[in-house]
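Hi W., the fe (ii) ion complex you wanted:
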Amino acid sequence: MLSDALDLVGVDDVFHGKRVAYMARTAGVVLGLDAAGLDDLLHAGLFHDCGVSTTREHSVIVAGLDSKDDEAHCLRGEVLVASFQPLAHLASVVRWHHTDAVDLELIDLPDRTRLLANMVFLADRVDVMLFNSPEEDLLLARVPILEMVRQQRGIRFRADIMDAFLAAASNEAFWLTLEPRALGLYIGHLARNLANREMSVTELRQLAFVFATIVDAKSPFTAEHSWRVASVARRLAAAAQLDDERQGLVEVAALLHDIGKLRVPDHILEKPGTLNGPERMRITRHAFDTWQILSRIDGFEEMAQWAAYHHEWVCGGGYPFGISGKGLVREARLVAVADVFQALRQDRPYRGRMSVDTALGIVDSMVSQGKLDADVVSLLHLDIIGCEAAATGTQEPFLGM
Ligand SMILES: [Fe+2]
Ligand SMILES: [Fe+2]
Ligand SMILES: [Fe+2]
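Structure:
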């Protein structure tokens, strides 16, 4: 489900990560990799582009077979994957997924890393060529693509990897599985088998932090927004005397509250002036997209609400669900107050940051208008020094490791 979130960065080209995962893993089966190797290919394929947050960078990377500006996202991706313990062993695969086979040989790496990285690279380039093909029919598009790829045998792509790929891709079903419906079934089936493991709250926070970093990297104006909202929300949750585990879960929900923004094109997030109607609609749906992504994860039913209700108002009239009163549970109210306060204390493209006093004045007026919860806002006043430090201070994000 979280790979769905990454797919959103493509805006119009969704499922890139899933197609790469499918192609790489299918070729891995031909190569005779063991179950752990196949899982690694699936995960590396799904998350290989996690260093790409902006729609601008995404369009550069999918522009063609040779793009020069592609190393930055490999480096960012490496750091992100390394910070989530269950996938940390794939960090170097992500790091090297845009490096030619001949160059990989010169780098001191375990052979398995070279193999996985080069397999992801091959699947990635095939998918980019499919995306750029004038031919809509996959079976017609494959012919010139296979021809182009073959010319890179032993240079850009290792010979054994290329041969396995060509064998896997020799039948029609391989290509037809790239269609969204078939692909969804393939990934869904594997994910169900893999995802049935319990995650500790600590692992959950690490993973949520990875996604918060991806969302926040979309624009310099939202840099650090998500994890800072999360640390304010955690403080408010502690002040509201929620127990320790629940405080951690509020923090996770707050880390993920804007994950739906991955779908909003950069130029809208960064527009200096007032948004026009269609642009405002595009922004408004981010809270709904957050709900869509999170509510499908087992165990996230409540947290999906806490995260997605951050633009709802206590009196009703917020978006996107327009719920109010009891429907707006306390945890969601905590996240909403943290979000408003942190955003006011941060520069936006259309205004500078506000002083603490002005920010608190606006928060108070939102209480009078029935938008924010009065009790939560009084907790903010009581702990303003701590909340202010969490919202703007110099402390490092707490990873819970
Ligand atoms: Fe890619
Ligand atoms: Fe938001
Ligand atoms: Fe936000």
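The mean pLDDT is 89.

W.
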